[in-house]
Specification:
It contains 20 helices and 20 strands.
Length: about 625
């Protein structure tokens, strides 16, 4: 943390140069990253009073504890640096592109003597030819699979022609899906003709391929080879499906991206149409956050800067909805990245304007449809939490923690802790406990240890965070639950209440009661099993929480068992080997009964000597903490 920061003095030092400025809060977090043609004027403007900056900026300024800046040689360098810093730190007050995906391409390795068609998420300056980007990775993989089948192209990584004849042809050749250039069964010229046909197909000329496939399908059907005819039929459907994705074309045949936004309050969706060789090959939408105080043109500009800082392919033209302030500067930046001129245009009339309007309408539909999905999701989560609060008469249950125990005959007792916040699992806060103090299958005592460790750790972490003047609510353990859910009824609930009382904590505890078929049937709370509508979202949420706690415990237990499949608590007893362990398990139903047996009872088993019986007896007494 930076202390003793003198704003007046530091503002005087600001240079009148282009650069990037970074605003920090008291905890050294980055609040905002911005670029400026003149750092001196731009940064000072934040600290002037009554200039109508808007509530979001006022809120940010109130949190600034210190700032720093980086001087650049040009505004273009500042733009690039600003993008890199925003992508790295995702500052709270920057308008952010939420999506960080990389989109797939189809790569044809024309630099190889026997080219292949590959899936790629990067576009490099090599001798390969790229098609895309596509919005669906599945569609790209289907397309590659279809082309390899249609044109019998190789899919292997062999170095050809160096490795020709070194190995036998692979299975693909035997099922007629590869022409086996690896064994010289096709000439380089003939193979290249097949590659050229695949390139023609990817370029949009699908009619000849469809005609050829239909002819082969009819020939196979006439020859009564219906299986082969069905294969051709499926290939025809795949080819038509790919062709139908190229719905829009124009006579210019250029690469361009069409970008439009739709905004409703602080919700913003950006829609991008990818047009390649004049054909619309795909589209994708993106959400922008922290948009308060920005107009649509500013949001659009931020999207363009962040999106094209990370995409490997740059089209010749960006067709956008609004005029943006830094259009010339961004054109210069994109042109330098592309190695050729990039144009940013706002179409006003004609088909291009209609295309931008269509992108805007698609953005609107995405936002409306997602609202409905969010509404349903809120019913499953926040709505379900409200139902549980109403049933238990609680003010809130934003954070719920559930615990479960798992073991096998007392071997490797473990406990799971799962966390749900606002009705959704928060997996980063899940915890698992390897029980240390309990020998044998005693779920109550295992639960007592797990809860004691969890809440003791929480109290200690909370005290330490307060000592360091940090928010205890942001700690992984110091954030205490609003509701504690136990996997069971009265017994488990009482154990939890005893632990909380011993630690001076007051947290509501409910039990998730199961029926004879191990299905959730109700909630036990304050000594009463409350009826709950099994069709309600609240009931479904309780069931999901209980199932998740059980799953997490079982997975942890399995992972420990997997490390040593034949291990048992008996293996830890001096003088007890595999033969005696098997004899004990044949004679007693459980580890707990072995632990309760006296030395005299143990020696009745032929394989157990008096010394071994004494060793077993002492081992379990020490496990229980008794005097030997």
């Amino acid at each position: 943390m930076t202390t003793g920061f003198d704003f007046d003095e530091e503002l005087k030092k600001l240079p009148k140069s282009p650069g990037v400025y970074i605003m920090h809060d008291a905890a050294d977090g980055i609040l905002y990253v911005g670029k400026a043609v003149n750092l001196h004027n731009r940064v000072r403007s934040y600290f002037r009073k009554n200039i109508g900056r808007g509530p979001a900026i006022d809120q940010m300024v109130a949190r600034i504890a210190w700032f720093e800046y980086i001087v650049t040689d040009s505004e273009l360098e500042a733009l690039v640096l600003e993008n890199n810093l925003i992508k790295e730190h995702s500052p709270k007050y920057n308008t952010l592109l939420k999506d960080d995906k990389t989109y797939p391409y189809i790569k044809v390795t024309l630099g190889e003597e026997y080219p292949r068609i590959l899936f790629s998420r990067t576009m490099k300056k090599d001798k390969s030819r790229y098609f895309g980007p596509y919005s669906s990775a599945a569609a790209v993989k289907d397309t590659i699979d279809l082309l390899n089948k249609l044109f019998c192209l190789r899919t292997c990584n062999r170095n050809l022609p160096r490795d020709i004849g070194l190995e036998r042809p692979c299975l693909n050749h035997h099922i007629h899906q590869c022409s086996a250039p690896c064994n010289g069964l096709i000439s380089k010229e003939d193979y290249r003709q097949q590659v050229d046909r695949a390139l023609d197909f990817l370029g949009g000329n699908v009619a000849p391929i469809l005609s050829e496939l239909e002819r082969k399908m009819k020939d196979a059907a006439e020859a009564m080879d219906f299986e082969k005819a069905a294969e051709y039929r499926d290939l025809i459907e795949s080819a038509r499906s790919i062709a139908q994705k190229q719905k829009i074309s124009d006579t210019e045949g250029e690469d361009k991206d069409v970008i439009a936004i739709f905004r409703d309050g602080d919700e913003v969706v950006v829609q991008v149409f990818f047009v390649r060789d004049g054909k619309l090959i795909g589209r994708e939408h993106y959400y922008m956050t922290h948009v308060s105080g920005n107009d649509n043109a500013e949001i659009l500009q931020e999207f363009i800067k962040q999106f094209y800082a990370g995409t490997p392919f740059l089209p010749r033209e960006l067709m956008i909805q609004y005029e943006i302030e830094d259009a010339g500067l961004i054109e210069e930046w994109l042109s330098s990245r592309r190695g050729a001129k990039v144009y940013i245009r706002v179409p006003k009339i004609g088909s291009k304007e209609k295309l931008v309007e269509m992108a805007c309408e698609n953005a609107r539909l995405v936002l409306m449809n997602d609202r409905e999905r969010v509404r349903r999701e809120e019913g499953r989560t926040i709505g379900a939490v409200k139902e549980i609060c109403e049933l238990l008469k609680l003010e809130n249950a934003d954070r719920m923690e559930a615990f479960d125990i798992s073991n096998t005959n007392g071997f490797e007792n473990v406990a799971s802790m799962v966390v749900f916040e606002k009705g959704k699992p928060k997996r980063s806060d899940y915890r698992k406990f390897r029980i240390r103090s309990v020998a044998g299958p005693n779920d109550y005592e295992c639960m007592r240890e797990a809860l004691t460790r969890r809440f003791t750790h929480g109290i200690e972490e909370g005290a330490e965070r307060r000592r360091q003047q940090l928010d205890p609510e942001l700690g992984s353990f110091s954030r205490l639950p609003d509701l504690l859910l136990m996997d069971g009824g009265r017994g488990q609930v009482n154990i939890a209440l005893e632990v909380l009382e011993s630690l001076g904590l007051q947290i509501p505890v409910a039990g998730m009661v199961k029926d004879d078929y191990h299905r959730t049937r109700g909630i036990y709370f304050q000594n009463v099993e409350l009826p709950i509508d099994i069709h309600s979202e609240g009931f479904k949420l309780v069931t999901r929480i209980q199932d998740e706690a059980h799953r997490f415990a079982i997975e942890y237990h399995k992972s420990l068992r997997g490390k040593n499949q034949i291990h048992s608590v008996l293996d830890d007893i001096p003088g007890v080997g595999p033969a005696r362990r098997k004899a004990l398990m044949r004679h007693y139903d459980s580890i707990e009964k072995i632990a309760e047996a006296s030395p005299e009872e143990l020696t009745r088993i032929p394989e157990i000597s008096a010394a071994a019986a004494e060793s077993i007896f002492r081992f379990f007494r020490e496990k229980r903490g008794e005097d030997a």
